[in-house]
Amino acid sequence: MKIAKTFARPIDRPINGVIKADQQDAESVWQELDEYVVTRELDRHFRAFVSAFLNASDNPGNPEIWGRIGVWVSGFFGSGKSHFIKILAYLLSNQVAEKAGVHRNAVDFFDPSVVNPKIHDAMFFGDLKRAVAVDTDVILFNIDSKSDTSKKDPILRAFMNVLNERLGYSPNQPEIADLERQLDMKGKFEAFNDIYRDLTGDEWVEQRDAFFLNADSIKTALAKTLGQSEQSYDAWIDDPDRVFNLSPETFAERVKSYLDQRGPKHRIIFLVDEIGQFIGQDGQMMVRLQTIVENLGTVCKGRAWVVVTSQEDIDAVLGQMTTSRENDFSKIQGRFKTRLSLSSANVDEVIQSRLLSKTQDATKVLKPIYEKNADILKNQLAFTNIGTTFKSYADSDYFAAIYPFAPYQFPLLQKIFEAIRKYGATGMHLARGERSMLDAFQVAAVAAGKKDIGALVPLHDFYPAIESFLDTAVKATIVGADDNPSLKPLDGSVLKAMFLIRYVEEMRGTLDNVVTLFVDQIDMDRLALRARIEESLQRLESQTLLRRNGEEFFFLTDEEREIARDIKNVDLLAADDAKAIAGLIYGEVLADNRNFRYAESKKDFQYTRLCDLHPYGTRVDGDLVVLVVTPIADDYGDWNEARCILKSGENDGQVIVKLSEDKLLARELREYLQTEKFITRKNDDGLAPRTKAILKDRADENRMRKARLVTLLGSMFSNAEFFAAGKAVNSKGEKPSIRLENALTYLVKNTFPKLGYLQHLAAEPQKEIRAVLLAPDTQEPTLGLNGTHANAIVLKEVADFVRLMGDANRRVILNDLAQDKFSKRPYGWPEWQTVLLVARLLVAGEVSLIQNAVAMSRETAAEALQSVQQWRNIIVVKRQTVDAAMLQQARNLAKDVFGQMGPDGEDALDAFIREQSQQWTIKLTGYKALAETGNFPGATAINECISFLRRLVANTDSYALIQFFVSGKDEARGFADRSADIDNFYTNQRPVWDRLRQKTTEFQVNQHEIDKSEPAKAALNRMQMILAHPGPYPLIKEVAGLTSAVQVVNDAALGSRRAHVLGRVDTFISEVTTALGQVEATSELKHASLAPLRSLRSSIEVDPSIPSILQAARIAEDLKDDALEAIEKFAKAKQPAVPNGPAPPPIFRKPRVVRIIDLKKTPGFLNSREDVDRFLADLKAVCDDALAANEPIDLR
């Protein structure tokens, strides 16, 4: 039986697989209603819609229902949502369908009483008939075909246009339609049409969209129709948009006006297809749609409905938009309370029912075939490593229902359609939904119809269903493959299948999966098919029609193919492969580890890393060498076992890792490097977006390729052959790092002969170093190097090396000792263990440690040895010792110098001298700071003492220090004498010195008076001499007597001068007080006049300076003059003015100051009576003048 004969209806009949809103011919309407399948899912959606619609019809006065007039129908591409709303339109308008003279109302196709009914519930059918009976206008339209995105507010204009079209007005120009509406309301529309026809000879309906070309005729027709001047229409003709205001509220008012004209129970429903795709991610459009629905609900009070379709549900559409308008979006969701979502199950059921339903005879034939071949089919149609699970045939009934198709094809084809549209491999027709799942399955079924039962539909049979809608570039690629002489017929089919799954993430294009997609017979020989497909894939890859990424193959577009060819043509240098594979092995597989820790000694070894004899990374001349030999090496075949054993024994031994062969390695590595190099070169911001996207995909794939290479090399490493120290090594372990560690362990054991000398390893060497160095002498016996210590042999090795280097006058740096000499062959000792040995030798007195030219104490060494950075600054030397005689001399000298006998023992005495020197240095440095101020003596002596101490402790070890101390005993004793005087001065004599400085300063102010007494003068000079003496320490005892002698003379002179001046100041105060009384001065004037004088008197009483007191006398005179002048001003201001007659004498007159010195005309003395007479005459003249002015006279 042919497959075509199994179907209940002719498989090649026209089925109108694509539903269009404006396709309304009789044949299409009948077929759409007759073959419409109400699936279980659609049954729920019809019930939901009818319930909401009837609820609004039954409760017209409920405001809450008015806001629920929006219906959102969602579903993926080809899910049947366009068909669903078109059936709603047929039902609500109760459209009559006609075929061969038979007429049926749309609702009759849903009658449950007919054969094979669409619905089975009679009660629901009753509700459906009630909904159909509601007087309803139905307006079904595709938003994209009715809108003009170049205009403002395209959604609102589309709604307005379809309403105008229903009312007979202009369907394209809302402004013209508004003019027609106004003429209609005035009853002038027909008259206008007639006048326009008379003027132009054309029908208005045919010319209205070109109104700008007929502006004069329109103005004339309007003027004649309405009886106005033509000029009154100029504004409207020039800018109709300005005159006509289109808004959601205006539109809702238009709808309400129409409904009111038709009666209170009349309804209108707008069914809008593909609104979601039209809006996209434009939040403004979405808000506009919400406003339209909201206004229709409130203005029309539930009588106007809006049903829209979208490929995504409303929450998903809103989720793609910005969240800055969350309040608006919550309103939008509220406007579409009824939400209906069509799933893939709905599509599967429609295809099975409408297209694939079988005859009873066919079912009887097909079911046994499945029962016989169920296990075979399960294996034939199996997929591996895919991102989803495709179901298989559930049972024989399901097999018969969908035959000749496989279960995986229903969800896969849906994903293919979505992916092709998403990634732009098609023209706009498919992108706008002009191909459906139903159509694709019919095309494939028709192709299979000529085959016998037992055949299955391979995936590539779906390709013709979309071929005519593909972009030219894609079609050219596939057509070109058919004409390519290097390819075979099968290759074209493989290429088609690879294109179909190109953008489907859930289907990986591996060889086994492609084989499954090509199974076209139930009993197909899968192994033979696999071989044919594999050869085909290789041919297509060689022609750059496919590219390979690991196990997957991918279809290439023209641009991708061009880039793939460019990648293949990238030249690689000879060293590129070696460098890259070394980086993958050492950098990735072995985690870039260049250190190996030998477990027994916990010693870290650095190893040199080689790959195919090329060094990797920074060259490290480590004690160990690892060489990895890979299959990409030119001489890989020469690395047989004998050569590997020989090479592993050279250069003190090395590890050789020979990787196993793998045919994928070279190809994957080359493609990885070529892709990496190409992408790096092409990294240019100026590239086209599509090119950037392709390069990004190649970069992502190359990262995956790198990951595969790392995994592959890791597996090869785990299965590699290992050789070390001239032998084949059975390095166990699964992980590459463990296998390498085992081989390195073997190498170390067999190439470091003195590693075993280290019998005892400290568990925590850093802590033990500190413990050894800080332990009391009684707890750390001499190590003796006589075999009593656990590590006696290694201690002797270190001590002998230090001695030999010293004998050769060569310095031994601790860092070199630990990290070079005893870290490398033949020792291989851990660095910290070596430093611990040095610490033990230091305690045993075998070596000394020198840092910054100073021998380190055990305490200092305990800290410094903890820092690896400080090892470079520490020198290890063989220690010299002091003999007993010199040691005793030093102890005795220490008693003379430091006041106590030095301890017995070289180290103890060395530490004692250094400690005493440090204490004295600190003390003398403090004295030095005081002396350098110039106020204290001894600066030179202090510097000499400090210099001696510094030269003493500059000797780096105990031997040198004690020798310097003893040989310079005279200088040491001189230091003792000087330091004792200095210390006694600053400890005991300093208060006396401070009094000396203070009194000397005080007496020097009055020295002119003191020098009149010879004993006092001599005593003051002696005090000044002591202050200037560099070593005044024995003279300090004279200070008390000297200061007392000077003090007596100073006090007498000061008292005499102070008494005289105070008498004059008291006279001044008395004169000012008298004047204040005469003028009856205010308290403020009294205070201002007397306070300065009294304050000056107080300062004189305590002033120790005679010159300062004499100066105060002159200041007192000035203060008295200032006070008298102020009193005179006060008196003048107080005396009343007399209008007529002579003025009364003033209350007070300031005395006129007459200075005797000013009257002398010639310098020198008065030598004769004539000089005296002349002076007296001048004085009399001045006095007479003052008295004539009624001024008192103050002679000075």
From TrEMBL:
<dbReference type="InterPro" id="IPR027417">
    <property type="entry name" value="P-loop_NTPase"/>
</dbReference>
<dbReference type="Pfam" id="PF25791">
    <property type="entry name" value="WHD_BREX_BrxC"/>
</dbReference>
<feature type="domain" description="Probable ATP-binding protein BrxC winged helix-turn-helix">
    <location>
        <begin position="754"/>
        <end position="879"/>
    </location>
</feature>
<dbReference type="InterPro" id="IPR047679">
    <property type="entry name" value="BREX_BrxC"/>
</dbReference>
<feature type="domain" description="Probable ATP-binding protein BrxC 4th six-stranded beta-sheet">
    <location>
        <begin position="575"/>
        <end position="747"/>
    </location>
</feature>
<dbReference type="InterPro" id="IPR058036">
    <property type="entry name" value="BREX_BrxC_4th"/>
</dbReference>
<protein>
    <submittedName>
        <fullName>BREX system P-loop protein BrxC</fullName>
    </submittedName>
</protein>
<dbReference type="Pfam" id="PF25796">
    <property type="entry name" value="BREX_BrxC_4th"/>
</dbReference>
<dbReference type="InterPro" id="IPR058038">
    <property type="entry name" value="BREX_BrxC_wHTH"/>
</dbReference>
<dbReference type="InterPro" id="IPR058037">
    <property type="entry name" value="BREX_BrxC_helical"/>
</dbReference>
<dbReference type="Pfam" id="PF25792">
    <property type="entry name" value="BREX_BrxC_helical"/>
</dbReference>
<feature type="domain" description="Probable ATP-binding protein BrxC alpha-helical">
    <location>
        <begin position="887"/>
        <end position="1006"/>
    </location>
</feature>
